[in-house]
Amino acid sequence: WKNAPPTLRETLLMGRSHGDKIFLVHEDERVNFEAFYRAVTHMAAELESFGVQKGDRVAIVMRNLPEWPVAFYGALSLGAIVTPLNAWWTGPELEYGLVDSGAKVAIVDVERYERMGEHLHNCPDLKRVYVSRAKEEITHPYVIPLESKIGGANDWAKLDEKPLPTVAITADDDATIFYTSGTTGKPKGAIATHRNINSNIFAAAAAGARAFLRRGEAPPQPDPSAPQKGALLSVPFFHATGCFAVLNPSLFAGAKLAMMRKWDPERAMQVIQDEKLTQMGGVPTIAWQIIEHPNRANYDLSSIEAVAYGGAPSAPELVRKIKEIWPKSSPGNGWGMTETSATATSNSAEDYENRPDSCGPAVPVTDLKIMTVEAPYRELPIGEVGELWCKGPQVVRGYWNKPEATAQTFVDGWVRTGDLARLDAEGFCFIIDRAKDMLIRGGENIYCIEVENCLYDHPAVMDAALVGVPHKTLGEEPAAVVTLKPGAEATEAELRAFVADRLAAFKVPVKVVFWPETLPRNANGKIMKNELKKVFVEG
Ligand code: ATP
Ligand code: MG
Q1: pLDDT at 109
Q2: How does DSSP assign 30-78, residue by residue?
Q3: Per CATH, is 8-13+34-169 categorized as 3.40.50.980?
Q4: CATH number for the domain formed by residue range(s) 193-434
Q5: Where are the domains of the chain?
Q6: CA of residue 407 to ligand 2 center, whole Å
Q7: What is residue 450's predicted lDDT score, i.e. its pLDDT?
Q8: What is the per-residue pLDDT across 451-462, written as a single tens digit (0 to 9) for each?
Q9: Do domains 193-434 and 438-537 have the same CATH topology?
Q10: What's residue 286's pLDDT?
Q11: What's the 78 CA to ligand 2 centre distance in angstroms?
Q12: Could you give the angle at which helices 67-76 and 33-50 cross, rounded to 10 degrees?
């Protein structure tokens, strides 16, 4: 922790030291580190002159665009609390986020601005809206085109430098409110401090060093003459992973970030080739979509050095595939949640190849324990399955405006994760399922992930989800929704027989439905099982 940048303002200053190296790439826009820094100082000065003060909430309501991080670091360097909202949300959902966070200022892109319409005027605390990329003139008195204050991305290099605001900010000040994905209920705003967020930088460095240290070797020092690292940004900035585990460490380390207007695997391969990107991943589906793409051989993807993902379960087969395609690469899998400011465990390189079904041990200065799911809570011995609890520098202090949920979820610095897991003797963590993502068939527990992993082992299966379907006497029965790989074939009977050969009879899906495209996922890559259940319940 000695060299930890205490706040994201220091991370920003570190970022500036990378000078004229390219930082952000978006279609024909290219922004170097110095230009980025200058745009941030203009954003901060604008917010300061409008009257934003330490602790005020500033919302960002945009898809991945170069102005997203400018708004983020601009507001943070004033001590404001940044509240990014999910760009996939509808007008009423965005209104919920703005009202719940009490945002004084919102920085929005033109699509979200149009989508919000009148909802923008139902937010009593909102005093100013900056809209980026508006084509038409804006007539509302408190809505201002962002470009009139900071210019467009390709102009940032020409900006003069403004002094950063001098307000005192400490590592334990609140920095952000990120909303959880809403997989199990209404999204909750998790309040992260500067320390919580910056802990990802050191978690990543320590994970990279671990395999070397275990072999008794010194981890390699960064080679200044090596080509610049670069990542394909396939996850949104408005979720903790994209912002804390990708954006902030990339700024710190001087890595390039290539963003896409819309996720498309073929376009992604083109960008990897053109920009010679060294990293890809985000969520496991992203990696699969590239690996299984029929046109993959048409692209030069040899620059890839690491394929790292997290946020959702991944099939053990993925590691083998990655090593097959990029034999020298380092695959990585991590576990985390919005409440742990992204990274809390990490598995990489040969550790991951040896334990492809584990999300790894806890990152430094972090503790994991397995507790009984029901009260009275007690710690379970190694190897037993229970609820995962986590404590460390990344665990947030609570939920915004939700004292009850905060008291239930955060206990003496530990976060109760709601995930079922077990630990092995060396501290490797194995996520079994969400405590809520299991079903009980006539008294027998079925962990969805176990059946899904079995289906993934079938050569024709690309995507699979198990859901519980109500049953009169058994309570629930397992049913599967499956997408096949392009050109592959399999019948319902064949898939059921495949599972029956490998798992106990009560776990075999009573029905398998084929889905024509990849399964519906939310912005964070998580399968929306509630949508899929309707297939069985509503026919
Ligand atoms: P909500 O809490 O609003 O219902 P959510 O839990 O999906 O939504 P996030 O904070 O984005 O919101 O996701 C965290 C969850 O993602 C974890 O609790 C866990 O269930 C899942 N997850 C994260 N990483 C992994 C992983 N490597 N393997 C399996 N599951 C993972
Ligand atoms: Mg959750």
Answers
A1: 98
A2: EEEHHHHHHHHHHHHHHHHHHT--TT-EEEEE-SS-THHHHHHHHHHTT
A3: yes
A4: 3.40.50.12780
A5: 8-13+34-169, 193-434, 438-537
A6: 15
A7: 84
A8: 998 999 999 999
A9: no
A10: 87
A11: 30
A12: 50
Measuring from atom 13 of ligand 1, which residue has the nearest CA? 337
Atom of ligand 1 nearest to the CA of 437: 20
ipTM of the prediction: 0.99
Ligand 1 site-directed mutation target among 419, 422, 448, most atoms within 8 Å of CB: 419
Bridge partners of 444? 441
Question: Pocket around ligand 1: residues whose beta carbon is below 6 Å from it?
Answer: 180-185, 187, 310-313, 333, 335-338, 359, 417-419, 431, 434, 524, 526
Q: Can you list the residues of the chain whose pLDDT is less than 70?
A: 1-4, 184-185, 538-539
Structure tokens at 336: 């985390």
DSSP helix/strand/coil, 539: coil
Whether residue 396 contacts residue 340, with contact meaning beta carbons closer than 8 Å, is answered with yes
Ligand nearest 238 Cα, by number?
1
Domain formed by 438-537, architecture: 2-Layer Sandwich (3.30)
Q: Which two tokens stand for residue 486?
A: 């392009």
* 183 CA to centre of ligand 2 in angstroms: 7
Residue nearest to atom 29 of ligand 1 (CA): 313
Burial of 316 (0-12, 13-18, 19+ CB in 10 A): middle
Q: What pLDDT does residue 367 have?
A: 98
Report how far residue 370's alpha carbon sits from residue 382's, in angstroms, rounded to the nearest whole number: 8
Of ligand 1's atoms, which has the minimum distance to the CA of residue 418?
A: 18
Give the model's pLDDT for residue 536: 85
Q: Give the closest residue (by CA) to ligand 1 atom 23.
A: 311
Closest residue by Cα to atom 3, ligand 1, is 182
Question: In the prediction, which pLDDT does 539 show?
Answer: 55
